[in-house]
Design a protein that fits this description.
By secondary structure, this protein is α+β, with helices and mostly antiparallel strands. It is built from 8 helices and 7 strands, in the order E-E-E-E-E-H-H-H-H-H-E-E-H-H-H. InterPro entries: DNA_glycosylase, OGG_N, Oxidative_DNA_repair_enzyme.
């Protein structure tokens, strides 16, 4: 399991920054999170439930030297929580009638700050494709070449592979066999 955020009960689960994240938003708009692992830097083990809240406030907290403050900064950056979403909605509604008609159905929509390689690979996979297939292809990249971060009740979680992990002989053929078609050349060549 990897591509995008998947709902599990009342939480959303995904990976970024070498961690498996479980997120939940409360009625006040605060974002609660648990990091199920942090393999790359040893911040916590899969058994630790470090449930924390990131306030909705636009004021940035001063980061402390702790795993939780580092995790909070990663979340703030990934979701761009410092961006004034209300003013963007106002601006977008003024210039885009389609957005204005649907804005009430999309509360809190944000542009994620994904790793550039992941965004580029998803873009390559998007050529002549639908969202379900794009998500499936990104997930295949993760399971085929990414580092396994956690094996749990919800399945296996993998990090998005690095360019080095995908830069070896035979990757293009493996991607073609996995259904990437003509995109395999561009994924491997990038």
């Amino acid at each position: 399991m990897r591509s995008g955020w998947k709902k599990h009960h009342s939480e959303w689960i995904s990976t970024f920054a070498g961690r498996v994240w479980c997120l939940k938003q409360d009625d006040d708009g605060n974002l609660h999170y648990r990091v199920l692992n942090a393999v790359n830097n040893g911040l916590c083990s899969p058994n630790i439930d470090n449930s924390n809240a990131v306030p909705r406030s636009r004021k940035r907290k001063r980061a402390e030297n702790s795993p939780n403050s580092e995790n909070e900064e990663l979340l703030r950056d990934y979701f761009q929580l410092g961006v004034d979403l209300e003013s963007l909605y106002t601006e977008w509604c003024e210039v885009d009638t389609t957005f204005k008609a649907t804005a009430n159905y999309l509360p809190g929509i944000r542009v994620l700050r994904q790793e550039p390689l992941e965004a580029l690979m998803a873009f390559i996979c998007s050529s002549n494709n639908n969202i379900t297939r794009i998500s499936s292809m990104v997930e295949k990249l993760c399971t085929m070449y990414g580092t396994k971060l956690l094996e749990g009740k919800q399945g296996s979680f993998y990090a998005f592979p690095t360019a080095t992990q995908m830069d070896r002989e035979g990757v293009e053929a493996e991607l073609r066999a996995a259904g990437f078609g003509y995109r395999a050349k561009y994924v491997h060549g990038t």
